[in-house]
């Protein structure tokens, strides 16, 4: 049996999937390690923060023009590996003595050379493709896989606004409004349909219908990547109960924005009532799927999760 696996990653570029999508690649890697009885060397997560005002529906700019910066973060800072056997890269180097089982004759990783050795119990593999829900029982992910490698709860420490601490004591509705990049031209016809389905008027109407069915809800928390302040204000006017967004200091360096994005996800997921953007489990965004899983973790007995309709 293998003792540890290091997964080679492609260079992070403007076309690299965002941090939420990449989680599923790592989850697939963890499953592969479990199959082989090996520890995982936690991979890096890509950071490609965007200015979503540049990728909204009427934008003609290339996708790459919206990227603010390109970087990475150690996935151990984001994901809780406590239920997963793991090994640091430094220990992987020391224990393998730079001799590993792999398909290549040799590779250079972070400036360190590794030599192929078919007898080694330390393995180097290409990172597997994204694990997907399509064709699978969705409950496998939400009830079995996500608890193995969830988001770190410590992410929200020191970032919770006072108004949230006060209002979250009462029943509220969490809404994931995937907006900013959904209508970009790169997505073609489905992008146009998703854009129309997430117009403030359509979203506000659906939220109000939900509020009427659940009068115990006193306010609404909206997690969104909308780049339009006009759209945000419009949704606030349409919704018939108080509505709040999580805002961060816009002087934050681009490569630090992920901390606030994931805090936003986790605060929204604390709601027992959760509405996600259109598409259902198969087409919902990776961010939305993580929010769904986190909602079930935090409200295991009484979570009510639904999806906005397509128009």
Provide a descriptive summary of the structure in words.
The chain is of the alpha/beta class and about 300 residues long. The chain folds into two domains: about 5-125, no CATH class; about 140-305, Rossmann fold, CATH 3.40.50. Helix content is about 35%, strand content about 15%. The longest helix is centred in the N-terminal third of the chain and has 18 residues, at about 20-35. It is globular and about 65 Å long. It starts with a strand and ends with a strand. The model has no long low-confidence stretch (mean pLDDT about 90).
Topology:
Elements: E1 4-8, H1 19-36, E2 39-40, E3 44-47, E4 71-74, H2 89-96, E5 99-100, E6 106-109, E7 112-116, E8 122-126, H3 138-145, H4 162-167, E9 172-177, H5 188-197, H6 200-213, E10 219-224, H7 229-238, E11 243-245, H8 257-269, E12 273-276, H9 280-283, H10 286-298, E13 304-307
Parallel strand pairs: 1-2, 1-8, 5-7, 9-10, 9-12, 10-11, 12-13
Antiparallel strand pairs: 3-4, 6-7
Helix pairs in contact: 6-7, 8-10
- What's the level 1 CATH class of the largest domain? Alpha Beta
Shape: globular
Question: What is the helical fraction, as a range of percent?
Answer: 25-40%
Major sheet strand order: 11-10-9-12-13
Query: Number of helical segments?
Result: 10
CATH architecture of the largest domain: 3-Layer(aba) Sandwich
Q: How far is it from the N-terminal to the C-terminal residue, by CA?
A: 51 Å
> What is the number of beta strands?
13
Strand content: 15-25%
CATH fold type of the largest domain: Rossmann fold
Major sheet, described briefly?
5 strands, parallel
Whole-number average pLDDT?
A: 92
Number of domains: 2
């Amino acid at each position: 049996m293998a003792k540890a696996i290091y997964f080679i990653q492609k260079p992070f570029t403007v076309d690299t999937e965002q941090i939420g999508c990449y989680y599923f690649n790592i989850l697939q890697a963890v499953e592969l390690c479990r199959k082989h009885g090996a520890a995982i060397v936690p991979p890096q997560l890509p950071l490609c923060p965007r200015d979503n005002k540049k990728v909204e529906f009427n934008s003609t700019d290339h996708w790459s023009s919206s990227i603010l910066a390109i970087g990475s973060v150690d996935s151990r800072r984001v994901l809780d590996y406590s239920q997963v056997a793991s090994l640091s890269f430094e220990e992987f180097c020391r224990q393998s003595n730079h001799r590993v089982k792999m398909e290549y004759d040799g590779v250079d990783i972070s400036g360190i050379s590794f030599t192929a050795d078919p007898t080694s119990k330390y393995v180097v593999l290409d990172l597997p493709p994204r694990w997907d829900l399509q064709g699978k029982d969705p409950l496998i992910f939400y009830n079995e896989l996500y608890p193995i490698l969830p988001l770190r709860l410590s992410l929200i420490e020191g970032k919770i606004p006072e108004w949230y601490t006060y209002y979250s004591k009462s029943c509220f509705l969490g809404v994931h409004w995937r907006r900013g990049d959904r209508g970009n031209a790169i997505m073609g016809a489905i992008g146009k349909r998703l854009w129309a389905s997430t117009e403030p008027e359509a979203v506000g109407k659906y939220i109000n219908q939900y509020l009427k069915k659940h009068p115990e809800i006193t306010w609404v928390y909206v997690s969104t990547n909308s780049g339009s302040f006009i759209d945000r204000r419009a949704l606030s006017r349409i919704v018939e109960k108080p509505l709040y967004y999580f805002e961060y200091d816009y002087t934050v360096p681009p490569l630090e924005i992920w901390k606030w994005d994931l805090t936003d996800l986790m605060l929204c997921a604390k709601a027992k009532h959760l509405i996600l953007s259109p598409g259902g489990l198969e087409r919902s965004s990776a961010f939305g799927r993580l929010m769904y899983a986190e909602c079930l973790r935090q409200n295991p007995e009484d979570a009510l999760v639904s999806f906005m309709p397509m128009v």
